[in-house]
């Protein structure tokens, strides 16, 4: 190993005890000066590289220990006394489901919800209360919704047509025995109106949708039939003496 003395700059045998002396002895008088100059240049380059390596090692050690002093790292190396470590936040797993039945505090049958994966895996799935939403299931749901909407429109249109018939057909006539004045024996009930509609129009009507005023005398009355949540028909009733 060649021992280098940084304080010395003399290109002689003291600086190059082995390699320098042997190389200079083999060279001629003219070449000895050139060889000495090259050796000095090479040694200077090696010393600069060693110094830079030591300097970089010191900087790297300072970075690893987190102790970096001003001017310690060359070429504008990062100067920081602390490091910030960002921890990744745990993401909660969510499942999109459809309930198969009504569940208190959760939702109603057919409702689409987002629940935690653990709740679905440990409770809803084993109990058969929900199923995972899939593209095929969504397609089937859309088709079912379209079918239901079409059926609702059909029912409403039929109710509107029936209401138009009731309003244009005129009054339904009801015969009753009459006592003194205009008073009739008995009364006219919703079942009486159902029977009359069946006999004259051949249509079945649920008596629960009929709103009928109290009829105790002869005369003309108006009953209401709730054919649809959005359609109400008015029916005239003419009570007369037989």
Could you characterize what this model shows?
Helix content is 43%, strand content 17%. The protein has 242 residues and is an alpha+beta fold. The chain has three domains: 1-85, no CATH class; 94-133, Ribosomal protein L9, N-terminal domain (Ribosomal Protein L9, domain 1), CATH 3.40.5.10; 153-241, Ribosomal protein L9, C-terminal domain (Ribosomal Protein L9, domain 2), CATH 3.10.430.100. The strands form two sheets. It has a four-stranded mixed β-sheet with strand order 4-7-6-5. The protein has a three-stranded antiparallel β-sheet with strand order 2-1-3, covered by helices on one side. α1 (19-26) packs antiparallel against α2 (29-65). The N and C termini lie far apart (142 Å). GO terms for molecular function: rRNA binding; structural constituent of ribosome. Residues 107-134 form the Ribosomal protein L9 domain. It comes from Vanilla planifolia. It holds the Pfam family Ribosomal_L9_N. It is found in: Plastid, Chloroplast.
Low-confidence stretches: 1-21, 59-72, 76-80
Number of domains: 3
Kindly report how far apart the N and C termini lie. Answer: 142 Å
Order of helices and strands: HHEEHEHEHEEE
Rg value: 53 Å
Largest sheet: 4 strands, mixed
| General shape | elongated
**Fraction in beta strands:** 15-25%
CATH topology of the largest domain: Ribosomal Protein L9, domain 2
Helix content: 40-55%
Which class do the helix and strand fractions yield? alpha+beta
**CATH architecture annotation name of the largest domain:** Roll
Protein name: Large ribosomal subunit protein bL9c
Coiled coil: 138-165
Organism: Vanilla planifolia
Keywords: Chloroplast, Coiled coil, Plastid, Ribonucleoprotein, Ribosomal protein, RNA-binding, rRNA-binding, Transit peptide
């Amino acid at each position: 190993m060649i021992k280098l003395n940084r304080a010395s700059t003399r290109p002689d045998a003291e600086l190059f005890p082995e390699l320098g002396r042997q190389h200079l002895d083999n060279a001629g008088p003219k070449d000895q000066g050139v060889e000495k100059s090259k050796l000095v240049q090479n040694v200077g380059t090696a010393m600069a590289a060693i110094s830079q390596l030591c300097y970089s090692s010191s900087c790297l050690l300072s970075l690893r220990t987190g102790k970096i002093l001003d001017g310690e790292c060359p070429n504008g190396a990062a100067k920081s006394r602390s490091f910030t470590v960002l921890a990744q936040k745990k993401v909660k797993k969510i499942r999109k489901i459809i309930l198969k039945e009504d569940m208190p505090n959760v939702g109603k049958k057919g409702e689409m919800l987002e629940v935690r994966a653990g709740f679905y895996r440990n409770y809803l799935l084993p109990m058969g209360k929900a199923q995972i939403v899939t593209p095929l299931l969504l397609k089937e749901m859309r088709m079912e919704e379209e079918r239901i909407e079409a059926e609702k429109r059909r029912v409403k249109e039929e109710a509107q047509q029936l209401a138009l018939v009731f309003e244009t057909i005129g009054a339904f006539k009801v015969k009753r025995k009459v006592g003194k004045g205009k008073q009739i024996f008995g009364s006219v009930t919703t079942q009486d109106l159902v029977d009359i509609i069946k006999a004259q129009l051949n249509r079945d009507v649920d008596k629960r949708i009929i709103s009928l005023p109290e009829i105790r005398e002869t005369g003309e009355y108006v009953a209401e039939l709730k054919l649809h949540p959005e359609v109400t028909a008015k029916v005239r009733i003419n009570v007369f003496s037989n």
